[in-house]
Amino acid sequence: MKEPLVISVILNTNRREDTLACIASLEASSYGNHRVLILDNASTDGSVEAIRTAHPAVEVLALQENRGYAGNNNVGIAAALERGADWIFVLNEDTILASDCLSKLVEAGESEPELGIVGPTVYHHNEPDVIQSAGGYLDRFWVSHHLHENERDEGQLRGLPEVDWISGCALLVRREVVEQVGALDERFFYYWEETEWCLRARRHGWTIRHMPEARLWHKGVQRDYAPNPSVTYYNTRNRFLMLARHQAPPVVWLRAWADTIRTLTSWTVKPRWRMMHDHRDAMWQGAWDFLRRRWGMRTG
Fold first, then answer.
1. For burial by CB atoms within 10 Å, which of 4, 81, 256, 264 has the most?
2. CA–CA separation, 197 vs 195, rounded Å?
């Protein structure tokens, strides 16, 4: 039986060495029917030339504008569909895959027709046996959590568990999911978009699963990761946008606004949080932009 066609979609913005290493790990994959599509966001570090020289079989598309993680990936998702992909692998450029990662993911995906999105076990690149994400879940207040985050892998991950969402750094999605529910919501620009996508797929009857035996290492987030104020902005605005899109119940809205107001107050009046004033301002702006329906890239 012919293997399903998988097309990996990878964004690159001046990350030449990371992108080259990611492509090299994909080309060492045990999975045969696979192509790589690079979306380059006006890089000036010689990325395009280096990719075309080192990996001539890889297709590179130049993005015409920066539409954020969601919009830029949608360009690649649309291109992958046009090229006949059965599965689309949305992948960060700062990841390294085990040689059997893609094979394990496709095997899991093909094991049941209702499985729409599947993701690997993501490890910290600087701590190769420490889990960064094994899928995620929303708690009763719709607060998002990674499963098994920062646990050392001691064989506790088994089976093919159902999860609420998959980390956007490595997400394998079935073609029919995109055709039915659409691609990423570009209003998010960056942050929460993969969670919302998975929730949308689930609401249409698709199953989301984590494949423990598929392994991948991610450089971009470490245990001591400290997000910048822009992340605070997008996290604030897009959390509310996700609640609005999926019609969260009143108790969830109440908790979200209470958390935001409490944090803003603390960062404003308590002297020990003076260093958080940039984050405070970003949170204020994120909440205000949600209320006035200002989406996309942060301005001002």
1. 256
2. 5
CA atoms within 13 A on the CB side of 70: 21
DSSP H stretches of helix in 65-114? 68-82, 101-109
Q: How does pLDDT run across 239-297, given as a tens digit for each residue?
A: 999 999 999 999 999 999 999 999 999 999 998 888 899 999 999 999 999 999 999 99
CA-closest candidate to residue 90, choices 175, 204, 212, 209: 175
Q: Enumerate long-range contacts of 144-152, CB under 8 Å, 24 or more apart.
A: 144/192, 144/195, 147/210, 150/223
Residue with tokens 């035996």: 213
Strands 87-91 and 34-40: unpaired
User: 170 in helix, strand or coil?
Assistant: strand
- CA-to-CA distance for 27 and 60, rounded, in angstroms? 15
Contact 173, 87 (CB under 8 A): yes
Distance CA 42, CA 23 (A): 19
pLDDT for the residue numbered 125: 96
